[in-house]
Amino acid sequence: MNAEYRKDLFADERSDDFNVIGKPVIRQDILGHVTGRSKFYDDHAFDGLLHMRCVRSPHHHARIRSVDSSAAERQDGVVRVLGGRDVPVNTNTLLSLINFGRDDEPLLATDKVGYVGQPILAIVATSVRAAQEAVDAVKVDYEELPHVLDVEEALKPEAPIVNEEYPNNAFDYFDTYDHQKLRFGDVETAFSKADHIVEGEYQMSPIEQAPIETCGAIAAPETSDRITVHTSTQALFFSVGVTAKQLDISSARLHFIGGTVGGGFGGKVDSHHEPLAALACLAAGKPVKYMWDRAEEMQVGGPRGGERWRIKDGVMRDGRIIARAFTGFFDAGAYTRLSSYAVQKSTGHLPGPYSIPNVASNVYCVFTNRTPSTAMRGFGITAVDFAIERHMDKVARAVGMDPIELRILNAYRDGDMKAHRREAKNCALIESCQAVAQKSGWSLSAEAARASSKSGGGEGALGVIPETVTDDEGRVGERRRSGLAPEPFSGHGTRGLLPEGHSSNNSSAFGNAPQREDMEAEIERLGFKGASGVPPAPQGPVDETASSARPTMPTETAHATHPAGARGGPSLPAAYVQRPAGTINQPISQPPAQAPGTPVAQQPPAAEAESESAATHFQRGVRRPGVSRFISGSRRR
Amino acid sequence: MKSPVTFRLNGSATAVFADSGANLLDVLRRGCGDLSPKYGCGQGTCGACTVLIDGEPHVSCLVLAETVAGRSVETTGGLSNGPDLHPLQRAFIEGFAAQCGYCTPGMLMSAKALLDRNPNPARSDVEEAISGNLCRCTGYEPIIDAILEAAKQRGAA
């Protein structure tokens, strides 16, 4: 079939002659590969190279009472024993380089370990064997703590705190939102009008990238006081930035050489080897290699995070999906790394390439005592796409429809409004489905074979919802810190376009106007942050004693709960205790904590609180006094 | 304790001091400076360190260096004759049979052992020959195609 290219991006920079497609191209680096001359990081030889091995936690979760490395230090060949206190800036989070999230992960653990294999000491010796023998001679006294390995278990109030920086066991976005939320249309009403309700639960396990070359780095001193680092990293500038930060030195002293990666698949972005190797190089004044062996690569290397998704669809008899709700849980493991971003990606991907006029989702980035997960090929997208497409097949069976025709019927068409209020452009799912059917000899109805992404878009409900406009600063909606003088309306914002009840600059407890009432931050679930007298600490580690002694909410009176299943929204099993309407959004009796100097935000107006109570889209967990109030569920295993 | 080991490496007489218990992979890479065999697992499961000993493929991470005394060792570092590439190397280049390139030296050695023994292998023979070599990038098909193509080219030459 004739290919048609309709991309409008970079149109003026493209010649569109496609003279490469269909012709073999010789890789520019392949001569080195087939002659064995490509220089991977371990192919750089240094005289007097030292080797590093780490003392690692055998426990999922334990407090470190004491570490005794005296015997190890006396062993032959041992040059340095490094602990967390030797790292100038021991705590980091990968995305701190773009000011996203709080530092939560130590390079070398000092007072507790959160997953099996977490490094505690790094031992530098003249050979791998000497380093390993020294590792074996270290005595660590652990006090084992209860651990949690399941995302929903971790969100229960009684779950152990995995990561003190996020004591609710969920990443909080912008120090405010404990999950990512998407609202489009009204799923509740649509569910009540649907002919069928189709629900499903889907899960993807963590997956190890398993590159053939294990992760590692060699750091060697230059004569100019710089350090040369040969590394397997896929993210050279992450690694430079993290190393400069954790060693507290100028990045001008770091000469990083990478680029030849022996398989990465996302697993070589975590930037843990370079700071340790460079630190040891500084301490020893000699070249140091920190290389994972295969067992470490598999156990300690960050995998693709596990995900669990629940999908609830409202479907008409003819196969049209009129509502879709998601609840998602992304398993970050013990520390954030890139999982916070993965959840944003997955939320941005909903509801899949389908035009559905009513969409809602709540997606959580959850901490568990598993190996911290990290990037891997489409992470954040792959599992939810798997869930969505499996669910489409389930919907097809429920309505007795051909699965490809169901997809064609519901596919985005040019001009449709997507759930993120962006117009769908250059859609091609219908054409892709038709090509698949043709190539696999699958017969389609005449109507499905005739369908086109270019016709029928923007009709009905999807045509009347306006695209979200952004303000002068590129922000969606209108978000003004209270206390700031309103700026003149530029004509580009949503001011005046929002329904009654949305004030332009101060309706939220956090100073940001929510786009709709059920987007309001749930202050009572923010544990120590929103509901206490403890000022928020946006940067730096939280004092453990402070977090374990978080002030509690005033005790609630007993609530009646909804009959299970009476509510729609991202579907939780009946076992979930639902947050009762009417008591949900009572104004908090105390204003949320404010850092000194920040303007005091106003309470949500009562009217707005009422309107949310009346239309609870989501079960939000039982409200109770104590540390965290989260969705609670039956134990699954 | 170090002891001298004398063997032929890619046709040249070689002598190297090896720690007792050292594996051939380490001795080739650090002692002889031949960096073409790669460390992938140290357990003999990935095949990235495959070399030929007297023409037979072995995972060098599991071979005691002392045991190659008096024998002939071939690595990918010696596969080409100066600038003249081996037919396998040419076929790998033209068939896009390498992505990250880390498994490639081991893959080439297993393939060479096969073609030296069986110049006209069936596809199943190729699959069998490289079954000890893991590749995480290519999905193997381009590698199998390239080895078959190399056999064809060599037969035609």
Task: State the main characteristics.
heterodimer, A: 637 residues, alpha+beta, Aldehyde Oxidoreductase, domain 3, seven-stranded mixed sheet, five-stranded mixed sheet, 16 helices, 16% strand, B: 157 residues, Ubiquitin-like (UB roll), DNA polymerase, domain 1, 2 domains, 5 helices, 34% helix, globular
Structure description:
Chain A has a 7-stranded mixed sheet, with helices on both faces. In chain A, helix 6 (236-247) packs across helix 7 and helix 11 runs antiparallel to helix 12. Chain A is α+β, with helices and mostly antiparallel strands and 637 residues long. The radius of gyration of chain A is 27 Å and the shape is globular. Chain A has a domain at 43-145 and 210-299: Alpha-Beta Complex (Aldehyde Oxidoreductase, domain 3), CATH 3.90.1170.50. Chain A is 21% helix and 16% strand. Chain A has 16 helices and 17 strands. The relative contact order of chain A is 0.12. With 157 residues, chain B is α+β, with helices and mostly antiparallel strands. Chain B folds into 2 domains: 2-78, Ubiquitin-like (UB roll) (Roll), CATH 3.10.20.30; 87-156, DNA polymerase, domain 1. A 5-stranded mixed sheet of chain B has the order 2-1-5-3-4, sandwiched between helices. In chain B, a hairpin with a 2-residue loop joins strand 1 and strand 2. The longest helix of chain B has 16 residues, at 141-156. Chains A and B meet through helix 1 of A and helix 2 and helix 3 of B.
